[in-house]
Amino acid sequence: MDTDPELRQLLQSTLNTVEENNKMLRHIRRSQKMASFVRFLYWIFIIGIAIGAFYFLQPYVDNITNFFKETGSTFDSIKGVLPK
What we know:
Largest sheet: none
Order of helices and strands: H
Distance between the termini: 117 Å
Radius of gyration: 35 Å
Shape: rod-shaped
Number of strands: 0
C-alpha cells in the first residue's frame, strides 16, 4: 500500500503539533504545582508570624488588661467613698 505524500506530511505536522502541545502542557502543570507549593509556604509563613506575634505580645496585652481592671476597681472604690 502506497501512502500519499501529502497525507504523510499532514500526519507528521499533526504529530509535531501534538508533541509541542504536550511539552507546553507539562510545563504549565509543573508551574501550577510549584505555584501551589509556594502559596502553601506563604500561608504557613503568615500564620507562623501571627502566632509568633501573639506569643511575643501576650505579656504586654496581659499588663494592659490588668491595668484597666485595676483602674476600674480604683474608680469603683472612689465611688464607694464619695457621698451620694
